[in-house]
Design a protein that fits this description.
Blueprint (H helix, E strand, L loop, with lengths): L1 E3 L2 H9 L6 H4 L2 E5 H9 L7 H6 L3 E4 L4 H7 L5 H13 L1
Parallel strand pairs: 1-2, 2-3
Helix pairs in contact: 3-6, 5-6
Length: 91
């Protein structure tokens, strides 16, 4: 099973020190590039920055369907829109 993760899930699990739960839930963990940037580039005190940059089981993915991402931006942030489109592509 594949799992697409957004920033809220990563930050919440990092806060409680349980990012290790993700590989127990799915064979492959995908993080859209927008989510990766959101977690790692918006302030150095954000939980998950160090962990996310060091985990080799997380696969960073670029979303190729930018038109679908753009269509979602009126209701979601960049990372969430990319996660939705990436998850839909993974089905």
């Amino acid at each position: 099973m594949n799992l697409v993760v957004d920033s809220s899930a990563l930050i919440a699990l990092a806060r409680i020190g349980r990012l290790d739960l993700l590989p127990q839930l799915a064979e492959t963990i995908h993080v859209p590039e927008g989510v990766y940037k959101e977690v790692t580039h918006q302030g150095s005190v954000r939980p998950g920055i160090l962990e996310l940059s060091q985990l080799n089981w997380i696969l960073r993915r670029r979303v190729s369907d930018q038109a679908s991402v753009n269509a979602l931006l009126s209701r979601f942030g960049q990372g969430e829109a990319e996660a939705i489109v990436l998850a839909a592509d993974a089905r």
